[in-house]
């Protein structure tokens, strides 16, 4: 059966966009088959697509492998650049990852953060403007923190490591903020109206899986962690390209499915460029089914024949 697996943003994000919530996904979720939910996590959204040892894996190790190819043999933690704003009672993260840093700014900041983390036994590295890393020896106790999406806009105290084991990381978090607050890079950025890089966010801890397996025939994704996981499973990943995805589907049909990683897309980029063409391909018989894996755990199977389920009223995702 010719099919696609769509990795989608969290349900609440899709529901928050009128363009997305009332179009293709509304028809599909109203008339398709709702499946048992998966865990609301990175691993949960992929457990029907890949097998790997253990119950979880590390986004930091996978993205490091995708970025630099040297993740094996170490434990990893993302330490991504972030912008935090304090209010009367707390601090909230308003941006994380891509903050418009150029290579020279990354190098200047990394030079001053390396001694802080080196003294704590970690190697700090900023190979890209949006993804920064801490390397640790295998077996190191690393904090299990919320993803940036989970922490965004929320009280950061609710997401920092707790207890005695988290004290070290709370201190590193605070010390990094002090270094960044006074950093010349931020002074220059403020002068030109750019957002300050005044914090780091630790997340995605762990090691690279020893192996991965998948029956997928193709993977289209722009995320380094998904691409690295596909490579571990022996599937050559391709860039997410709306003009060529059906060619990939045709090449592997009917033996296997193709994964389309749409998690980072929003509004028209999601509905018009991907969901509407997928619906047209399903209606026209180019594909036979679509699996919907929302990042928040909801899952659906949509078959071509489901378009005749007229007795099921169409509801928007907000319903």
Structure overview:
- This protein has 319 residues and is α/β, with parallel strands linked by helices.
- It folds into two domains: 153 residues, no CATH class; 148 residues, no CATH class.
- It is 36% helix and 20% strand.
- It is built from twelve helices and twelve strands.
- The strands form two sheets. A seven-stranded mixed β-sheet has the order 2-12-11-1-10-8-9. Strands 3, 4, 5, 6 and 7 form a five-stranded antiparallel β-sheet that branches.
- Helix 5 packs across helix 10 and helix 6 crosses helix 8.
- The chain starts with a strand and ends in a 16-residue tail after the last strand.
- The mean pLDDT is 94.
Rg, Cα atoms, Å: 21 Å
Helix percentage: 25-40%
Strand order of the largest sheet: 2-12-11-1-10-8-9
Number of DSSP helical runs: 12
Number of strands: 12
Assess the beta-strand content as a share of residues: 15-25%
The major β-sheet equals: 7 strands, mixed
Q: Which spans have pLDDT < 50 for at least 5 consecutive residues? A: none
Order of helices and strands: EHHHEHHEEHEEHHHEEHEHEHEE
Spatial shape: globular
What's the average pLDDT? Answer: 94
Q: How many domains make up the coordinates?
A: 2
Counting helices, strands and paired strands, the structural category is: alpha/beta
Distance between the termini: 32 Å
What's the layout of helices and strands?
Layout: E1 3-8, H1 11-15, H2 18-21, H3 24-31, E2 33-35, H4 42-46, H5 59-68, E3 75-86, E4 91-96, H6 103-119, E5 123-125, E6 133-136, H7 148-151, H8 163-181, H9 184-191, E7 199-207, E8 218-220, H10 224-232, E9 237-238, H11 245-252, E10 258-261, H12 267-283, E11 289-294, E12 299-303
Parallel strand pairs: 1-10, 1-11, 8-9, 8-10
Antiparallel strand pairs: 2-12, 3-4, 3-6, 3-7, 5-6, 11-12
Helix pairs in contact: 5-10, 6-8
């Amino acid at each position: 059966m010719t099919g696609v697996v769509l990795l989608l943003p969290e349900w609440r994000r899709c529901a928050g966009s009128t363009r997305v919530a009332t179009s293709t996904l509304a028809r599909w979720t109203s008339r398709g088959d709702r499946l048992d939910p998966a865990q609301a996590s990175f691993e949960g959204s992929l457990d029907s697509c890949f097998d790997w040892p253990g119950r979880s894996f590390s986004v930091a190790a996978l993205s490091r492998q995708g970025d630099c190819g040297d993740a094996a043999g170490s434990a990893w933690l993302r330490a991504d650049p972030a912008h935090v704003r304090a209010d009367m009672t707390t601090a909230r993260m308003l941006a994380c990852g891509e903050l418009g840093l150029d290579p020279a700014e990354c190098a200047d900041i990394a030079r001053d953060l390396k001694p802080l983390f080196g003294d704590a036994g970690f190697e700090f590295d900023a190979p890209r403007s949006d993804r920064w890393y801490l390397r640790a020896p295998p077996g190191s106790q690393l904090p299990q923190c919320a993803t940036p999406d989970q922490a965004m806009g929320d009280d950061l105290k609710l997401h920092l490591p707790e207890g005695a084991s988290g004290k070290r990381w709370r201190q590193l978090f605070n010390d990094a903020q002090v270094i960044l607050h006074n950093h010349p890079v931020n002074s220059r950025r403020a002068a030109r109206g750019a957002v300050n890089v005044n914090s780091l966010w630790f997340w995605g801890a762990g090691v690279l899986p020893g192996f991965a397996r998948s029956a997928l025939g193709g993977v289209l994704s722009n995320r380094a962690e998904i691409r690295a996981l596909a490579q571990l499973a022996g599937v050559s990943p391709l860039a997410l390209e709306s003009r060529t995805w059906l060619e990939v589907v045709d090449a592997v049909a009917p033996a296997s499915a193709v994964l389309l990683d749409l998690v980072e897309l929003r509004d028209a980029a999601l509905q018009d460029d991907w969901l509407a063409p997928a619906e047209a391909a399903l209606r026209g018989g180019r594909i036979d089914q679509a699996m919907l894996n929302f990042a928040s755990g909801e899952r659906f199977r949509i078959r071509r024949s489901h378009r005749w389920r007229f007795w099921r009223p169409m509801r928007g995702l907000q319903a």
